[in-house]
Amino acid sequence: MERIIGIDLGTTNSLVSVWQDGRSRLIPNSLGEYLTPSIVSIDEEGHVYVGKIAKERLTSHPEHTAALFKRFMGTEKTYALGGREYRPEELSALVLRRLKEDAERYLGTEIKEAVISVPAYFNDMARKATKDAGALAGLHVERIVNEPSAAALACRSTGGKGQAEEDETLLVFDFGGGTLDVSLVDCFDNVVEIVSVSGDNRLGGSDFDRAVAEQFCKEHGLCFDALSPQRQNVILRRAAQAKCMLSETEQTVMTVTDGEFQGQMELTNQKLIQISMPLFHRMLVPVRAVLNDGQKERLEISKVVLAGGSCKMPTIQQYLRHFLPYGQMTVMDPDHMIAAGVGVYAGIKERREEVKDLLLTDICPFTLGTGVYNEADARRSIMAPIIDRNSVLPCRKEQRFQTAKDFQKSVKIDVYQGEAYYVDENIYLGELSVDVPMALKGQESITVCYTYDINGILVVDVKVDSTGKQARQVITTGTYTLDPAELEQYLRDLEQLHSLPADEEDNQMLIAWGERLFAQTTGELREEIGRRIQYFQHLVNQEQDPYKIRKQRKYIADFFERADRYLDTFADAWQRLEDDSSWYEPDSGGADPYGEGTESMAEEEDLKWYDGHLTS
Ligand code: AMP
Asked: Would you say 62 and 230 are in contact if contact means Cβ atoms under 8 Å apart?
């Protein structure tokens, strides 16, 4: 049997899974880890680094390294790496290629097909770009699953003993590095039904990193935006580490040592809340929206399912508990929920006995419509919804439109996605035209039919009612997606890039680590790090004695680890911090540090959830 893998192509990290021995299993990468950072680095010689090693290079070679590119799937943004421009789907393809290789090694067979998860809010172009990325990685991607649906599937099929459990209503809160997706899911018998979804595709863990980094800069008289990308990355990396530390301890110290600059900042959960309060407020918006759209009360939620790395933040769990007090919180492993779910889907697709009857019904997360003539202002067309958001997929809806002007020769159907009243505030997806017989305004009509399939591909059919003339457009080739010829070209280009063999990759990983430390230190320590990098490069490039290389790799890694620890607890900087009281701002007593005040009742309500819980 041809195996199908499940891939959670995340903004920050990606994972691969497969249905094996009656359950969904995660597949480790070559480093034995499940999380592969979604980061790609390409050097001048066309060597490509993916994952942890690329993450190190983000600090040492930011100009050759790209991260968070998933946020720009299906857009025209490009990244200049190693002397060439790359589209987000090409970079994603390099991550997918790596996961495919990991799966092939683990399963001992060639893999040609994958199910990939995407945020529910991904528009048509981003979905098409994800499929293109699969094709560029040599994977046929027939099925795209919404991430929250995958999380629900994982919860439903692994929460119990592999059999259907009681009926329940789940709220899936999927909060990753770059996006927040919230879904309301009804589960009964073997059916997992997505009732409503909402989200914020510009809100994620990296916004908290940014808030911490900006606070750090504020306390040290720096302006984050004015710093070099390299220094920004160093501070962001430390900010992310400090934030993650707060999942384990109530208080931590963020230390930044970068060249001549040294600084520290104390961080507590309480302070994190204060500096990122606007982010907390934004989290509730989609929760309210799914309950509204699904016509459910919050008390009807029987379980809150947390997915995505950011759900590990205790402050977020606390915040949700405050608003959803009756929900039983399921904290399985937020990092793995989606991947586990796509693995279940891979099992369903392979028609595995244990899950073949499990039925996942999904919905269209946004409204699809067309622009109609605006009598009041001819310059701004109005959105006429054809498929309403949260319609069950696959779905097919028809609507009739009349000509808007006398002796009109043709009718143009613009296709839009979004909820706004005016089409220019929604996302344009494409258009098609049909000729109509010339007649007085309103005398000719057309029937427009939208069909939206389970993979999120939209087909638009138009029929002229009087003549029966028809036109069809499959909205899969938006402006920024690839046509077959381009796909072929990109495929050839990507084949030019080669990854390094595993042992060589470990070597390069050590060198990248050293280069990052070199950039962060000064003086003797920096010289020593430089010497070790040179020596190791000499061993790898000239001597090439595998035994010696392996031995030195271990010694030097020990040294680098100590250097990293040293950076964390830099005594001098601490002393200076104690001497200098200007960094310390007296506790504002919960006031909004952004100075926006807390006028409304709702906001005062919001503040209560942490007063008395986290304040010491
Ligand atoms: P994902 O996109 O689901 O991989 O989530 C990645 C996000 O989760 C990043 O912003 C991480 O900083 C964040 N994250 C991972 N682990 C933790 C942790 N222990 N505490 C807080 N945030 C975390």
From this structure: yes
Residue 151 CA to ligand 1 centre (angstroms): 16
**Residue 41 and residue 47: Cα distance in Å, rounded?**
8
Q: Quote the ligand 1 centre to 240 CA distance (angstroms).
A: 8
User: 205 CB under 6 A from ligand 1?
Assistant: yes
Q: CATH says 4-203+303-363 is which class?
A: alpha beta
**Closest to 387 measured CA to CA, from 378, 379, 398, 377:** 398
Q: What share of the chain is helix, strand, coil (3-state, %, to 5)?
A: 40, 25, 35
Dihedral pair phi/psi, residue 464, rounded to 5°: -80, 120
Query: Of 423, 419, 287, 414, whose CA–CA distance to 365 is shortest?
Result: 419
Q: Does the domain at residues 368-468 carry the CATH identifier 3.40.50.720? A: no
What is the pTM assigned to this prediction?
A: 0.75
Helices (H), 294-419: 314-323, 337-349
- pLDDT at position 423: 93
- Rounded to whole angstroms, the Cα distance separating 526 from 262 reads 14
Separation of CA 9 and ligand 1 centre (Å) = 14
Q: Which atom of ligand 1 is nearest to the CA of 10?
A: 2
Residue 475: both structure tokens together:
């909205």
Mean pLDDT in order along the chain per 10 residues (616 residues):
94 95 95 96 91 91 92 91 92 97 97 93 84 94 89 72 69 89 90 89 93 97 93 94 95 89 94 94 91 87 90 92 70 87 95 89 89 89 91 91 93 91 90 94 95 83 94 64 73 74 83 84 82 90 88 92 77 43 36 32 39 32
State which amino acid sits at residue 113.
Answer: E
Nearest partner of 480 among 136, 72, 149, judged by Cα: 72
Tokens of 141: 């991607």
Other Cβ atoms within 10 Å of 166 Cβ, number: 8
CA 205 to ligand 1: nearest atom: 10
Kindly state if the Cβ of 403 falls inside 6 Å of ligand 1: no
Structure tokens at 143: 């099925």
- Say what the pLDDT of residue 409 is: 94
Neighbouring CB atoms inside 10 A of 561's CB total: 11
Instruction: Name the DSSP class of 506.
Output: H
DSSP class of residue 461 equals E
- Hunting for tokens 């005398």 — which residue is that? 443
| Secondary structure class of 350 (helix, strand, coil) | coil
The CB of 286 under 6 Å from ligand 1? The reply is no
pLDDT of residue 579: 46
75/490 Cα distance (integer angstroms)? 16
How does pLDDT run across 245-292, given as a tens digit for each residue? 999 999 999 999 887 788 999 999 999 999 999 999 899 899 988 998
* Cα–Cα distance for residue pair 585/439, rounded to 1 Å: 73
Does 38 sit in the ligand 1 pocket, CB within 6 Å?
no
